[in-house]
Amino acid sequence: MKEIIYFSKSQSVFILDQTLLPFKVKYVESKNYKSIIKLIKKLSIRGAPAIGVAGSFAAYLAIKDLKSKSKINLIKDVTKRLNEIGSSRPTAVNLMWSMKRFHNLLLSNSTKDHIDLTNLFLKEAKYIFNHEKKVSTLISKIGSSIFFKNCKVITHCNTGSLATTGPGTALGVIKIANKRYKGIQVFATETRPLMQGSRLTVWECEQNNIDCTLITDSMVSHVIKENQINLVIVGADRVAINGDIANKIGTYQLAIACNYHKIPFYVAAPLSTFDFNSKNGEDIVIEQRSSDEVTKIMGYQISKAKKIANPAFDVTPRELVSGIITEKGIIKNPNKKIISKLKDYCC
C-alpha cells in the first residue's frame, strides 16, 4: 500500500479515500485547504495522527494560496484559516497539536514575507509527516513487549497504517507482535456505525498475514469470556492529563469488560495525542456526528427512527487503563503526576 497521504511535485496533496475501502482504492487530489477540510469531515482520512498530518498539509495549502498585500493582513488571514482547519474535527487533539505548531511558526516568523513563510509551512508539514511515521514505529516496537506466543487480543476501530503515516498505534503493535511471536490471534470489532473495524482493520490484517476474526461490537464480553482473551489494545484520539482516554465509541464498554474479567486493557497513543490542558475526560469535547451514519449503511436506509444519538467517541476513566504505550515507553497505571512529566518531551 502507498502512503495514505502524499505531496506531489505539482504542489497538490493526494489522500487515500478510506470511505471506499476495502472495495476500491482511490486517491483524491486536493489543491486547496478547504478540500482537505472536507475530506477530514467526511472521514476520507481518519485516525488522530493521520488527521494531524492532513491538517498540516492543509495549513501549507492555506498559506500558499493567499495573496495578502501586507504582512499584517497575511498573518491575520493565515491565522483565520488555521483556526478553520483546527475546528474541522473537535475531539482528535493531534489536529489541534498540529495547528498549534503552525500558529507558533507564524508568530516566530512574522517579519518574513509570503514566499519564505510558505516554504517554512511546507517544511513543517513534511516534518510532521515524518515525525508521526517515526513515532508510530517506536510505539509499535515498544508495545509488542506486552504480547507473547499464542496471545489472543481484541482491538477496536482502526489504528493501523490507515490511521497514521507509519505501521500504526494499536494495530501497529499487533503487526510487530505478529512477527515476533507465533500464534497471535486478533479479534476485530466491526466498529459501528461506520465499520472501520470490518472495512479497514480486517483489510490491514489480511495484508499483513495476521489471523483476524471479525466480531460485532455487542459480542465483546462474550468473546472475552468464551475465547479466553489475554488482553485488549486500542488507540486514542485524546488523552487527558490525568490519564482519561477519549477514543472511538465502544471503547469504554470494552474497558469495563476487561476490568470485570481481570484482563489488561492497553492504549497505544503518541504524545501528540496527549492534551496537557484537559484536566480529565470531562474537559474533552465529544464530537456528535450526522444521524445518517446510524440510519443508513452504504447509502441504504435501514431505520426510520426519529430520535438518534451518534457520539463519535466515549471517555474511558484512567482507573480502567492498565497502561498507555507511547514512543517514550509504557505508562503503567497512568495518572497526572506521571503524565505531567511527559510534557517536555511533546514536540
What does this structure look like?
This protein is an alpha/beta fold and 347 residues long. The protein folds into two domains: 5-137, Up-down Bundle (Four Helix Bundle (Hemerythrin (Met), subunit A)); 142-345, 3-Layer(aba) Sandwich (Rossmann fold). Helix content is 40%, strand content 17%. It contains eleven helices and 16 strands. It has helices at 33-41, 48-64, 71-86, 93-108, 114-143, 170-180, 196-207, 220-226, 251-261, 292-295, 336-340, and strands spanning 5-7, 13-16, 27-30, 152-155, 185-189, 211-215, 231-234, 238-240, 245-248, 265-268, 274-275, 296-297, 300-301, 313-316, 323-326, 329-332. It has a seven-stranded mixed sheet with strand order 6-5-4-7-10-15-16. Strands 11-8-9-14 form a four-stranded mixed sheet, covered by helices on one side. A three-stranded antiparallel sheet has the order 1-2-3, with helices on one face. Helix 2 (48-64) packs antiparallel against helix 3, helix 2 (48-64) packs parallel to helix 4 (93-108) and helix 3 runs antiparallel to helix 4 (93-108). The radius of gyration is 20 Å and the shape is globular. The model has no long low-confidence stretch (mean pLDDT 95).
